[in-house]
Amino acid sequence: MMDWPAVALSVRLAAIVSAILLLVALPMAHWLTFARRRWTFLVEAVVALPLVLPPTVLGFYVLLAIGSRSPIGRLWTAWTGHGLAFTFEALVLASILYSLPFAVQPISAAFARIDRSLLEASATLGASPWRTFVRITLPLSIDGIVAGAVLSFAHTLGEFGVVLMVGGNLPGVTRTISIAIYDQVQGLQYGAANETALALLAFSFLVLALVYALMRKPWSVAPL
Amino acid sequence: MTAANGAVLSATVRRRVSPEFTLDVSFQAPAGFTIVFGESGSGKSTLLRMVAGLATPDAGLVTVGARTLFNSVAGTNAPPADRRIGYVFQGLALFPHLSIAGNLEYGLAHLAPAERVARTRAIAESFRIAHVLARRPDAISGGERQRAALARSLVTDPAVLLLDEPLTALDHASASRIIDDLRVWNTSHRIPILYVTHAHREVFALGERVIVLERGRLVASGTPYEVLEYPSSEPLAQIAGFENVFSAVIVERRPDAGTMLCRLASGDSDGHGARPADDIHIEAPLARGEVGTHVRLAIRAGDVLVANDQPRGLSARNILTGRIASLTREGPTVHAAVDAGVRFSVDLTPGARDALRLAPGDPVWLIVKTHSFRIVS
What we know:
By secondary structure, chain A is mainly alpha-helical. Chain A has helices at 4-34, 40-52, 55-66, 71-80, 88-113, 116-124, 129-140, 142-157, 161-167, 177-186, 190-215.
């Protein structure tokens, strides 16, 4: 049967991650698109790394970075009284890194499509950079922002390798849908695995269909 | 209105745009229209962008009245938002997601809502777009879009207005109506208006003053008459409507008469010719240069006379024989191409063509006064 706690955990994780990612990706995409420095390409490459790295590699380094002997891990332990590895917070942190390109790239592409003279017109009409961002840049790139949020939500929902590396498989804490499916298959419960897998498949399809329907511009923002 | 209105714009700017192109210009613009004229790529838009603060000069000084907008020595560089400079972009740059009212009100965020609405109304009425205030830019006509862009930049009461070829997409009649409205607006506001164009009819239509840019340099300035009637260079002659430009060599100087005799150089123009161009001698106004110096002679198509019989007893010093290659009518003008060793463009009226019964292939005589020729560098 369906592992409902795993579903709830996955949805909670994806919602938190995509919300934080929006806050991180908007300024990052803005910087990447408009403040082009000579070394901007290095940042672009780092942001895109999760697209090509095996999740286990990313998960491995996150695990090292948050381990009890790392500075981050020690700080976290001093602050909360328990370790960071194999917790829900560790999943959030790892998922933010893992889904970063899925939020940054569509937003950055949407920013780049804005006619620069609109931003310049806004400035000559007395608008501060912040007002230009809120009144012109944001509304004109709303499709890319929605795409970034939805894609990072969907991508986080379905991740497996990173979760397994940094979260393990603790029911109600770090057991997400994909881990539950893996468990069910290991236990030869193919019926239950199919039920969960089908639910994830249908949900992912619905989300993507919704994004592309909203944008109505075929492949204007490819998932990658 | 405010103290800054009526203030003179003064700019001295230098910027290396690319290894081959450096813009280096100094000019002043008092209240009224100043045409910035030049071919595309001459640096007109870059100049406007530096005045508006959208591009930064490598060195220079930009002031409006007592306000310093840019000073490379003192390190002053006011951001565009603080310059009070209205800018109408070539593509207009109306915000597509806002209504026309939203576009007009955009620059009035600092005002109380009632005042904002009142000002928007007033400017919309004086630019005749009050009926489209509720619509988006993509739902109105091209002329209305131009008016909206103009009104948006003026409603903020700028100290200077910059117009980057705003009317090129419009037909002549719509463009002149908008220019008239702008003129009316400026009689009560009196601010410097820089108007970029490469269409020479607009220079005469608007012109109080014109400055001419060529490859990043200011090559001429003055009234349209001064600048375009005596063009100082060949590109300027071409944009100023001197359709005929010929290569020639000085063969004899006649300082007493104030003239010189030139021989047209062969292989010139487009190479048409019943006989070698070397035989054609032209008397032109005396210019600097020794015998043997190469010069360029320019003449307007409208300053060449045509006769269908050998003219006698004329004061004109240049009478050439030729043959009509083609006749084409364009509105009230007939353009004739005449082979006279070199190809001359000649403009005449349809009435003159009919009276002389001119047809392609006919032999004709071309008559040109000495002082209709301009020597251009």
